[in-house]
Amino acid sequence: MGVPHYLIIDPRDGSAVHYWAPTRRTGEVTYDNRQHYLFGDTVTVAGWKIDTAGLPRYAAGGGL
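Structure (tokenized):
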């Protein structure tokens, strides 16, 4: 869809990935840039700052 910034937060392993700069190649959208983060980092997405330190993680059994 070509969303300019795409942030995936995974509470299972306490990680996040920010994708940006979409380009269309052979009918598919791919992202030219990505940055990996861990919970506790401050993520900056298009001028927004997201503090991940307070985000909940899933427990080992799959629940919160």
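The longest strand covers residues 15-25. Strands lie at 5-10, 15-25, 28-38, 42-45, 48-51.
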